[in-house]
Amino acid sequence: MKKDLPDPIVEFSTLVEILRWRALQLNNFLRRFAGPNPEQAVMVIVRTKKCPSRFRDELTFSALLLVLPAVCSAQEADRFQLSPPALQAPRNIGVEPQPGPQPPCGIEPIPPYPGLDDPAIVKSWNKSDFGRDWRPPACTGWAAAGFTTLVTTVGRFRHTSDAEGLLHRIGAISELTGMRYWSTTHKQWQTLIVDAYALTGLQPGQRREDFTPDEMKEGKVLYFEQVDNLSGKAIYRMHIAEASADRLVFDVENVSTMRYLFIPIFQPGEMQSIYFLDRESDSVWRYYSLVRTGKNANRLIAGNESSSINRAVAFYRYLVGIPTGQEPPAAR
Q1: Which of 63, 239, 325, 327 is most buried, judging by how many CB atoms fall within 10 Å of its CB?
Q2: Is the peptide bond before 328 cis (omega within 30 degrees of 0)?
Q3: Domain limits at 300?
Q4: Does the pLDDT at position 44 exceed 60?
Q5: In a domain, 56, yes or no
C-alpha cells in the first residue's frame, strides 16, 4: 500500500527557504569579503584559491541563494506560486474594510448559518478584507491581533443525541487517527491525522485513554498529542470554555513548536481553533468554527488557501459524522 506523502504547501518555496536559511548562516562570512553586496561576494569566493574547494563550493552556492530573489524575474517566480490569484491582490486604497468573522456570541454570526441540508459554508479570509491587525472577537479569548491564515466553517447538522454525545465525540482523540482530506498539491485524498492520543498532562508521550464527558467540564484544560502529515508531532491544549445542555464551546491551540522539514512554522500558540456548537432543536445543532494561524507564523504555510479550507472541513466532517474522504472536496 502506497504511503501517504506529506502535503508540501509550496514545494519550491519550501526548498528555497531551507537552502536560504542555511545560506544566511554563512552570510556574515560572505560580507567579510565583499561588504553588503552579495553579488560581489559570489565573485570573491569563486576567485579565492586558499579556501578548500569543497568549502568554497558550498559558500558559492550559499551566496547564489542569497541573490536568488534579485536575479529571478517575477515571471519565473510565478511558475512556482501555488496560491490562488486572489491572495496576491493588493489592498484597495480607500475601500472601507469589510466586517470580519463573527462567532455566535449573542449576535448573528458572520458568515450566517446555511440551510439544514445545505453544505457547510467555508470561507478563507484575506488580510486585505479588513487589515493585517484584525482583532479577534472577545468571545474567542484570543489576545493577539492579526493572522496569516483564517478560515471559518459554518454549518447545521442533524444530531439526535444530547450534548454529552457530542462531548464523547470531541473527547475521542484516538478516533482522529486516519482522518482524511483532499490534497490540492497531489490531487487526491490523503491521510491528514497519522496518529492522535490523549495525554495525562503537558509532557509528551504520556498516553492515556480518550477523555470522557465527565472530565470535560466547563473550564477544564486537557492535553493531547497529534501527528499531522505536514507538521509532524505536536502537543495541543484543549480548553472547555462552555459546556451546557444547549451549548458547547471549546478551543484548541498548539503548546509545542511545530516544524516542517526541520523548519519551525508555528511557535507555541500560533495554531488556534475555536468551535461553537449550539442546539437548535431536539435533533439539530449549529456548528461554527474559526481556525487561525498567527501573523508571525512562517510564510511557508500561507501559500495554499485551498489546503487550509480542506483541513478545516475535515474536522467538521469528522465531528458531524460525514465521511472525511467523501466526494466532493470543499476545494480542489
Answers
A1: 63
A2: yes
A3: 121-320
A4: no
A5: yes
Q: Higher-confidence residue: 172 or 21?
A: 172
Distance CA 286, CA 104 (A): 10
315 lies in some domain: yes
Give a yes or no: residue 84 inside a domain: no
194: which 3 cell numbers? Answer: 497519522
Residue 76 grid coordinates? 519565473
Q: Rounded to two decimals, what is the model's pTM? A: 0.72
| Domain count within the chain | 2
Q: Is residue 98 part of a domain?
A: no
**What is the phi/psi pair of residue 20, to 5°?**
-65, -35
Distance of CA 10 to the CA centre of its chain: 13
Q: What average pLDDT does the segment 48-61 reach?
A: 46
DSSP assignment of 163-201: HHHHHHHHH-GGGGTT-EEEETTTTEEEESEEEEEEESS
First-last CA distance in the chain: 24
Confidence band for 97, pLDDT divided at 50, 70 and 90: low
